[in-house]
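Support reply, case 0932

Customer input (verbatim):
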Amino acid sequence: MGSSLPPKCSTTIILSCFLFLLAAAVDAKLVHSQRVLRRPLKEKMSHLHFYFHDIVSGRNPTAVTVAGAKNSTSLTGFGDIVMIDDPLTEGPEVSSKLVGRAQGLYALAGLQELSLLMAVNYVFMEGKYNGSSLSILGRNMAMRPVREMAVVGGSGLFRMARGYAVAKTHWFDANTGDATVEYNVYVVHY
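Our regenerated output:
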């Protein structure tokens, strides 16, 4: 005759085994999810191409001088600070498809030559980057054929972005100061 456990004891053992297996399964799931969270994100390189329209003349300028140096005799406009909300378009015509806005400011920082300090966010409103932005900071030697500025950050799809923006003047009106600038932006992001 074999001995058997009392019914209360076998129920306790079965319940204990069940709880042990449940705890092991939950622990395995947590370990797996933590590994997924620790997995490094893959970086991507994106190239963006658009046109920046700096409109200082007319009834609806998109660039307005908000501060200036008193008694300045500088031919470069040294000391002026300009706030902008410039359109970014697909093509060189201001009437082409709007893809975003350049919002921020530039300060005329050169005494001897036209040199701008750019602190601008490119806010995208179209396509896969809609709602995302890039932050640009750097020196813009506006009269040079090609200039380079740093991408120092971003938001949305460009969170933790870094890279550079290459600017090339497409058109400039010396009488009004209006300009269209072609941008090629190379950005590394997650």
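We compared this against your earlier run and they match. Two observations from our side: The chain has a mean pLDDT of 89. DSSP finds one helix and nine strands in the chain. Please reopen the case if you see a mismatch on your end.
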